[in-house]
Each structure stands twice: as C-alpha cells, then as structure tokens.
Design a protein that fits this description.
This protein is of the alpha/beta class. It folds into 3 domains: 47 residues, Transferase, Pyrimidine Nucleoside Phosphorylase, Chain A, domain 3 (Up-down Bundle); 258 residues, Nucleoside phosphorylase/phosphoribosyltransferase catalytic domain (Pyrimidine Nucleoside Phosphorylase, Chain A, domain 2); 86 residues, Pyrimidine nucleoside phosphorylase-like, C-terminal domain (Aldehyde Oxidoreductase, domain 3, Alpha-Beta Complex), CATH 3.90.1170.30. It is built from 17 helices and 13 strands. Strand 4, helix 10 and strand 5 form a beta-alpha-beta unit. 55% of the residues are buried.
C-alpha cells in the first residue's frame, strides 16, 4: 500500500477503506509517511469530503493512535460538553460543577485559545497555581472525588490529532467538516466520556459563520458520535455577539463564579433566568446545555425538567462550593482566588465610548475577538503567551439604549501599546440603530441522531 495511491483515491472522490485510513494515520504518527503527503490528503478531503462511515473510521483510527483515560471503576454517568468555540464562550466553567452537583461526572479535556476564540485551559490557568496538566492518576482521583476534572490533551492522547491539527492549520484545511469531526470526537472518546452535549456555534464570532455550514458540522458530529457508541445531542447556537459581559481569561472565570453564587445572581423567580443581570444570555445557554447533559445522563426526562434541576442546584449553592473545591484540587488557593475578584486587572485600561445616540444594533463578536488577540486574551500561534489580566467588560449589548459619550466597554491590555492598537477595532465593533433591533434567538435548534 502506498500513500500516494490513497491521496489519488480521495482526490478522485473514492471512499477510503478502514485499511487505507489505518495505513495513513499509523504511518503519519510513526513518521514513515511525510507531512507533505498527509497535507495533500487533507486537501483532497477538504474538497471531496467523506461519507459518514468513512468519517467514523477516521475518528476510530485517530483515537487508536494513542492512549485513553482509564475511568473504569468510577461510577457514572460520565457526561461531557464540547463547544466549537466563540468569544466570551465560558459555559464549561459553570457546567462542570453544575453537572457534578446533580450526580453526573464530567471528565473534561479542553484546549487553549487560538485565533479570536478563547480557550478553557488559559482561563483556568489565570487562577494562580491552578494546574491543567494532570497525570491520568490525578485526573481519575479528582474526577472521582469532585465529580469533574479539567485537563488538557497530553502527548500520548490522540497524537494523530495533535499532528494533523498542526498540518491543517498550515495547509488551509481547518474548516473541513470530516476533519473537524474526527478531531473533536477522537479526543472526547479518549477522555472517557459516555455521553456528550455539543454546542455548535454560528455567526460572526464563531468558527463557522454560516448557520447552514454549522448545521452540517453538527449533524456530522452527532451521526459520527452515535456510530462510535456515544449518547449525543447537539445544540446549534448563535455567536453573533459575545456570550455574557466578560471577555478575557480571569475576567471570564470571575463572571462564571458570579453565576454560581446565589448571593451574586438575581433572585430566581418563575419565568426568569438566574445570573448576574449582565449575563442573562450566558446563563440561558448554560441551562439549555445543562438540561441536555442531565437527559443524556438519565437524570431528567425532558429539557424542562433538566432546567428545573439546574435552577434548584444553583439556588442551593452546591455548584459554587464544587467550583472552589476544584480550585484547591488542581493546585490553586481558593482564598487567594476570592480576594482577586473584581481587582485582578491590568493597569493599562481604557474606556470605549458610544459615538452615537440611539440603540446598540450589534456588538460584532469577531471584531472583539480580534482585538482581544492584541490585548493579550488570545493568540495567533499556540506557543504565544496570553495575559491573565487582559480583557474586556461590556457595559452595553444589542438592544440597549445608548447616548453619545456613554461607556460601551472597558478594555485592559497587556501593555499600553496593545491597548492603543486595539481601541480602533473595539470602537468599530459597535453598530447603532434608531430603534431597538428585534431580539435574536440564542438556540436555533436541537439536533439528534436519526
């Protein structure tokens, strides 16, 4: 068998066999098939696509390229959540302790910021001392004790994905739906999850801007996940503006903590979503995702029942306590963390003011994300450092009335130069209207297998 023949077959649109994909992936990881041939194959996949069966085989081969988390003996249900990424997308930090408080166990393997989208690991590591590089034994121990554990991909976990992702980034094939599907699901299976809720985003701040393309990705993920034996649901969600009011690393951790503290969020009343008044959209999405996690874990019969359970847990305060316990379990100091709330900011600060009277029609999430890279929130390359104290706080979101000269947002940069460079982008992110814009739906649809 030759790699060039596999490339030619895919170039011509033929479905590749299990043996061909195993030969390609195993040879790539072993170093016997060079990068340039795998790049050529990835480009052929980009243009020709893959069948659902072919995508499932690719995912299995990538999964088998390395070790898996051994979670045997830990009582389940083991349910995780994955997002395709966005700006201010921080629901994982709320969902993990929330799910654990209701009897689920969440083995969460997360990634870092790349481009304009944030990374869960960078957010957690903004807490002094917090460790996301856990050994398999530590991961098991924390998961069993706290109900959730947060770690990153190791060199032994799905090495084919780590190698292929780097090639996709350099060969302009990142957007390939089969390759995205195999990348996400191989890691989720490797972490030990039995069930998975997917948050597949579309809009200006999302990886895929077009709702139809995002839905294609969601269906590919759901169908492939089901073929791999996962219980799986996807929600297609709007990322045209940032989620919540904070964009940054520690800033987002702080906002999530506020959403977990009954003393900090609005009183729960029928028909009203809890959460700091400025984070209603964040809590709405968290409740929708949490409800599906409970359904897949056998704890709720319907989304409505799942939401009620989530609301009750939040009001009781157990998720907040689990959040703080996890900080200590993974090397942080809970008391130090609490003293940092509201104060852990860069000294390089600027206010972005409204340029018009009227209403905010839109805050462009992608422009904020791009500005965030310069501020120090995100990175262009995976090896670039990020700043834990940089970020944005939004004072206005779509639909809010505004007067000229009123603060729209506060920005903190890693240094003065980065702040000054970001200001024009931030000012250009706000769009104005004479009347309030119609509200946009946050969750477009739920997607299941079959």
């Amino acid at each position: 068998m030759r790699a060039v023949d596999i490339i030619m077959a895919k170039r011509e649109g033929r479905e590749l066999s299990r043996e061909e994909l195993a030969f390609l992936i195993n040879g790539f990881v072993a170093g016997t098939i060079p990068d340039y041939q795998v790049s050529a194959w990835a480009m052929a996949v980009f243009f020709r696509g893959m069948s659902p069966a072919e995508t499932a085989i690719l995912t299995e081969q990538m999964l088998n390229s390395g070790g898996r988390m051994d979670l045997s003996g830990i009582p389940g249900p083991l349910v995780d959540k994955h997002s395709t990424g966005g700006v201010g997308d921080k629901t994982s930090l709320i969902l993990a302790p929330l799910a654990a408080s209701l009897g689920l166990r969440d083995p969460m393997m997360s990634g870092r910021a790349l481009g304009h989208t944030g990374g869960t690991l960078d957010k957690l590591e903004s807490i002094p001392g917090y460790r996301t590089s856990l050994s398999p034994a530590e991961f098991r121990e924390i998961l069993a004790r706290d109900g959730f554990a947060m770690t990153g991909q190791t060199k032994d976990t799905v090495p084919a994905d780590r190698l292929l992702y780097a090639l996709r980034d350099l060969s302009a094939t990142v957007e390939s739906i089969p390759l995205i599907t195999a990348s996400i699901l191989s890691k989720k299976k490797a972490e030990g999850a039995e069930a998975l809720v997917l948050d597949v985003k579309y809009g200006s701040g999302a990886f895929m801007r077009d709702p139809a393309e995002a839905e294609r990705l969601a269906r590919s993920l759901v169908d492939t996940g089901a073929a791999l034996g996962l219980r799986i649901i996807a929600l297609l969600t709007n990322m045209d503006q940032p989620l919540g009011r904070m964009v940054g690393n520690f800033l987002e951790v702080e906002e999530c903590y506020a959403c977990l503290d009954p003393a900090l969020y609005d009183a729960v009343v029928p028909g009203k979503t809890p959460g700091p008044a400025l984070a209603a959209d964040l809590m709405e999405l968290t409740l929708e995702l949490g409800a599906r996690m409970l359904m897949l874990g056998g704890k709720a019969e319907s989304p409505e029942e799942g939401r009620r359970l989530c609301l009750g847990a939040l009001a009781g305060g157990k998720p907040r306590e689990l959040f703080l316990r996890n900080i200590e379990s993974q090397g942080g100091d809970r008391e130090q963390f609490l003293t940092m709330l509201g104060t852990y900011r860069s000294p390089h600060r600027a206010e972005i003011l409204s340029k018009e009277d009227g209403y905010i029609a839109r805050i462009d999430a992608r422009k904020l994300g791009q500005a965030g890279i310069g501020l120090g929130v995100g990175r262009d390359r995976i090896e670039d450092p990020v700043s834990p104290r940089a970020g944005l706080q939004l004072h206005k979101k779509a639909g809010a009335p505004v007067q000229r000269g009123e603060p729209l947002m506060t920005a903190w940069g890693r240094n003065r130069e980065s702040l000054d460079a970001a200001i024009p982008l931030l000012e250009g992110a706000a769009e104005y209207a004479a009347a309030p814009p119609p509200p946009e739906k946050l969750v477009m649809k739920e997607i299941r297998h079959g």
